[in-house]
Design a protein that fits this description.
The protein contains nine helices and eight strands. The protein is of the alpha/beta class. Helix 1 crosses helix 2 and helix 1 packs antiparallel against helix 4. The relative contact order is 0.18.
Length: 213
């Protein structure tokens, strides 16, 4: 019997809101002459189920290549300045590792930033596979990221158990389409959401996973 836990990254494993906001505001000022947004405004926009982030962040319907390049250049250094893992996350990852779980990360952030941040925080070694938006053709809510991780671990739906843990409706939709259970993470960017299960704190994951297998 295999047991696989797949985690979203931003707002689930790590609190990256401040650094994302600083880089977005850098682009707003340098490329568009716009005033800064608050962390709350940025995080709420990121987690909204339906939105055009280019319009919200940069007042343009299209994410222009110049703005994208400026953001990525700035964020590469910025992304490890203030980022932290959520309280209890590392203990949960250690416990799951000790219990023989396989773990992966499925994030809509570019893989280069995901691996850089998780490595900076000392978390990357917990995961056998870190899949970013640029590592697949279609990011979440499409299940392709999750399927890639499940296939890597030779997941058998008849004998194995798998969970997707995330703070966004896209995570839960991807889990449903991949045919695995979704656990909504209520401690990060979103305090409310619906999945097969809801966890207010990372340590609740252990109870849910134990009872759900």
């Amino acid at each position: 019997m295999g047991r696989i836990a797949i985690f979203d990254m931003d707002g689930t494993l790590i609190d990256s809101g401040r650094d994302i906001t600083l880089s977005i505001n850098y682009v707003r000022e340098r490329c568009y002459g716009l005033p800064p947004l608050s962390i709350t405004e940025v995080v709420d926009a990121i987690n909204a189920p339906c939105r055009n982030l280019s319009e919200i962040f940069y007042a343009t319907t299209t994410y222009e290549a110049s703005a994208r390049n400026r953001f990525e250049e700035h964020y590469y250094d910025q992304c490890i300045q203030n980022v932290t893992s959520y309280e209890g996350i590392e203990d949960v990852l250690k416990y799951l590792t000790q219990q023989g779980f396989s773990m992966g990360v499925a994030t809509n952030a570019p893989g280069i930033f995901a691996r850089r941040m998780l490595n900076h925080l000392g978390l990357s070694d917990f995961f056998s596979l870190i899949v970013g938006a640029d590592d697949v053709q279609t990011p979440k809510p499409h299940p392709q990221m999750l399927q890639k991780i499940l296939e890597y671990h030779a997941f058998d739906s008849g004998t194995d158990y798998a969970w997707m843990i995330g703070d966004n409706s896209k995570d839960m939709e991807a889990a449903e389409q991949a045919g695995i259970l979704g656990i909504f993470a209520g401690w990060g960017f979103s305090s409310q959401g619906a999945g097969d299960y809801f966890a207010e704190h990372p340590k609740e994951l252990l109870r849910i996973i134990t009872e759900g297998k």
